[in-house]
Amino acid sequence: MNVDDDPLQADPRWRRLIERPFDCPCCGEQHCGVFDLACGKPEQWAGSEEKASNSQAARSQHFLSEDFCVLDGEHFFVRCVLEIPIVGSGGAHFGYGVWSTLSDKNFRIYRDTFDSGEQGDLGPWFGWFSNRLKGYDDTLNLKCQVHPRAERQRPWIELEPTDHPLAVEQRRGMTLDRLLEIYALNGHDIRQALMDS
Ligand SMILES: [Zn+2]
């Protein structure tokens, strides 16, 4: 790989991050490489994050599971991934597990095809981004497109190309410093650990 594509190779923090596992001084877990963050539920779900089974989606009007959420039989959410490229990394990206609304109709199509794994030809579908992410101006209800994928991969989110900082980051990427800041805001401040170890 050309160093011009991958200038982060010259940053010792990046090499430390990706080359071997390290113990997180904040959460106590071992992290390895660029790790994802995840929201356990849509912002609008006020109940506990305890998950029902996905199969409950066929019959329940009010539940939260790993991949679906229905609120009062009226609001329909699916678990997605927001991917943000890391500037200078030669193609690495950071993944944020987030939720989006779908219309009743699209939610039913998504739910009914979920077990088949054959969802790559579905969508994209309009949705409202349904989480507030730390470190950004309010992200709740940003407009987005939900892109279902094949083989049980969670749908990816494409934010409407506005000037919102999160949408800008999805288009242009985030720096390593920004990634480390986002980790720190979410309980994984590894900045010192990457310098020391
Ligand atoms: Zn951690």
From the N-terminal CA to the C-terminal CA, the straight-line distance is 26 Å
Shape: globular
Instruction: List how many beta strands DSSP finds.
Output: 10
- Give the oligomer, counting copies of the same chain as homo and different chains as hetero: single chain
- Helices and strands, in order, run as HEEEEEEEHEEEHHH
Structure annotation, total helices: 5
The major sheet is characterized as: 5 strands, mixed
Query: What is the topology, as strand order, of the major beta sheet?
Result: 3-7-6-5-4
Query: Which percent range fits the helix content?
Result: 10-25%
What is the arithmetic mean of pLDDT? 94
**Are any ligands bound, and if so which?**
zinc ion
- Kindly name the structural category: alpha+beta
- β-sheet strand percentage: 15-25%
Low-confidence region ranges: none
- Rg measurement, Å: 18 Å
